[in-house]
Amino acid sequence: MKEKEKLIIDVAMKLFAEKGFDATSIQEIVNEAGISKGAFYLYFKSKDALLIEIFKYFYHKRKQKIEEIGKRNLSPREKLTEYLVCNYTEISKYKEFLIMQTREQALPINESLAELIHKMYVETTQFYKLSLMDIYGKQIEPFIGDLIIILHGIFQSYMHWTLFQKKKIDYYKLATFILQRMDDLVKGLLKNGKEAIVPFEELDQGFLHINQLTKKLHKKDLLHQIRKIKKQYSHSSDLYITLDVLESEISNEKPRIPVIQGMLSNLKDIEDTLPLQRQIKKYFHLKEK
Predict the structure, then answer these.
(1) What band does 208 get if pLDDT is binned at 50, 70 and 90?
(2) Is 198 exposed, middle or buried (0-12, 13-18, 19+ CB in 10 A)?
(3) Cα 94 to Cα 17: distance, rounded to the nearest angstrom
(4) Which residues contact 224 (CB under 8 A, 6 or more apart)?
(5) C-alpha–C-alpha distance, residues 179 and 57, integer Å
(6) Transmembrane residues, as ranges (predicted)?
(7) What secondary structure letter does DSSP report for 288?
């Protein structure tokens, strides 16, 4: 990654974390980075493209650290512990940015990103399988699919909890606790002798495939969202009128872009409408300022 590209990513992450994705303009990013808009567009086609590259940056940085763990002389249990700690530590470094993403759901899913998300899912699943088999042996093989789902769910739930904690968290203590609960689960499954629910080979069927992740946005989806929000703001005449004009214009066979842009500017400070604004901009290919 080139130095200027990394600078733009660092500055954007800082601003997105402070102001939110929708509230941050490309102009603000280039001003903070001390570069021109032309320099920005040399590396990123749009603000959405920048956000996708930030996600990819996270992925490659995390993967590099996990590969380093694999090179160390660790027992299977120690390796899984370090894996969990590494993930939680990396997440904590970008807590404010990830909270923004959780709140705004700003990440635009295209085919390239969908493939990366699926790749991460497959890599995580394979790592969990190898780790759990190494720790507990072949006796857990009939339950490996269920154990992976449970471990993944526990990890994700604690991840969301850690994002909103202000106190310092001991990630080694947390990882140890999670593995102790896996000990309990394995012991219970083997003792109980009940049939497994999810065979390992069916795990990938539970993941959204690329064509589902990249579902095309339709005008009817926008209109549905507008009508839904209109009900929430029926008490506010100005906002209701703005949404009503927006609905009417988008319904037209040939919507007038300046009218849509004008109505969006009226909504720019209304947080509840940010996802809708983003979808409208994406549908009509409206550039960020």
Answers:
(1) very low
(2) middle
(3) 9
(4) none
(5) 29
(6) none
(7) P
**End-to-end CA, the chain:** 25
Could you give the CA distance from residue 61 to residue 94 in angstroms, rounded to a whole number?
12
Alpha carbons 16 and 29: distance in angstroms, whole number: 9
Say which DSSP state 284 is in. T
- 56-67 in b/e form (b: 16+ CB < 10 A) is ebbbeebeeebe
Q: Which of 193, 52, 79 is nearest to 134 (CA)?
A: 79
Q: What's the CA gap between 135 and 76, in Å, rounded? A: 6
pLDDT digits 0-9 by tens, 257-281: 999 999 999 988 787 788 788 889 8
Task: State the Cα–Cα distance between residues 146 and 200, nearest whole angstrom.
Answer: 8
CA distances from 184 to 26, 90, 189, 193, 240 (A): 51, 28, 9, 14, 55
151-204 pLDDT per residue, tens: 999 999 999 999 989 889 999 999 999 999 999 999 999 998 788 999 888 886
Confidence at residue 288, expressed as pLDDT on a 0 to 100 scale: 63
